[in-house]
Amino acid sequence: MKQEISFIPREELKAKPDTASLGFGKYFSDYMFEMDYHNDLGWHNPRITPYEPLTLDPSAMVFHYGQAIFEGMKAYKTPDGSVQLFRPEKNMKRFNESCDRLCIPQIDEEFLLEGIKQLITTEKEWVPDGEGTSLYIRPFIFSTEAYLGVRPANQYKLLVILSPSGAYYGSQLSPVKIYVEEQYVRAVIGGVGHVKTAGNYAASLKAQKKADAGGYAQILWLDAKENKYVEEVGSMNIFFKINGEVVTPKLNGSILPGVTRDSVIELLKYWNIPVREERISIEEVFAAHKRGELEEVFGAGTAAVISPVGELTWKDQSITINDNQIGQLSQDIYNELTGIQLGKKEDPFNWTVKVTSVEG
Ligand code: COI
Asked: Belongs to which family (predicted)?
């Protein structure tokens, strides 16, 4: 039997931020979804509760051994005023894959999605409707058991918080500069790179700082073994358009299987544009540029959507892609994906899921 989701009201609602100044991940709505796990009780006490600071034991295992995973998804306001999600079942599935890899107990995917829908319905006034905006949804789980031995914890907390957001990189669809990292690695095969665990991002910060200092928006990671094959960018997957064909690194166990990545591949197939998932070396990318065949490079991710890459730097070589302009294909994919997400275009793939109706 499904559990009832209880509602704990707050006394005062917050003022909503100005849509023009949203940025990414700075503002949080009035409520969050919360649920706890105990070995004896399973996942229990699902509730929509005021967004507020948590109290945790200093010995909570997450602080010491890092059992922490998350997801990223978005809710969109459609022209008729209803709210919808984009392929949320894929996020739920990946959340459980992250649980599995981090020895966190599995969640009921359907139930969590229902909880997220109820939370968004409560918070529908927080779904922004300015150009390029959406309500970013961040589900996450971490271990809360107070214990210092190294083993999977017996207690966890699951939270879903909401953040009205605009573009991830300052402005939507402006080409970014990316730096190919050679000293540090993001993930190894057999490790945790293919799931969304907090530690992956902690491990990326040192290189990200280097990139920031050089004026780059993000890092392009290479494989950990040979330092040769392209993996992904800090917060998105990567695509190269070479001589009319699109190539993206094949999922190999250390690359994150992005929902936007998968959607771009599906879209390209639908448009009959050749697309291949295969191992591609950074040398090949630079060689393609030298031959004049590297037409476009773009990243794809939930937060970033489609992000054209205008410049790539590897060792001491910098290349400018498509004159640092938004490529036609990047623009077309962006228009189509955001059109579907925002309910402005037909959704032939059945990717969108309504959360609220016009009245709702
Ligand atoms: C997302 O795209 O939703 C992500 O989780 C990337 C994040 C690190 C901003």
From this structure: Belongs to the class-IV pyridoxal-phosphate-dependent aminotransferase family.
